[in-house]
Request: fold
Amino acid sequence: MPNVKIYVDESVLAGVTERSEAAMAELRRYLCEALGVTDAACHIVLIGVKSPAGQTPANVELVLLRRQDRTSEVMTAFCSRLRDLMTGWLGCQTAIRCTLMETELYFVARQPT
Reply:
């Protein structure tokens, strides 16, 4: 895990759709390197939304499992770098929201592969 949802105003998304696959691959590489996880652990979605005027046009929400090495300082630096990556790709103001979850509170049900 990380579970990453990228909400982008449709007016912004229209201008970046062509390069979104490459940008999400770069995002996955950053997540894996910075968080010490594998590709298979990352779940990333890009969602076009209609947002009201005056609202940040892009919002990235991450849910991560808490680990001892994911201190406040480490996560603040991680989120700042992620914001810079996303702002560069999208060309607009981007907000990053990250939640750390306790392992014993995380449950998943997947279809067998």
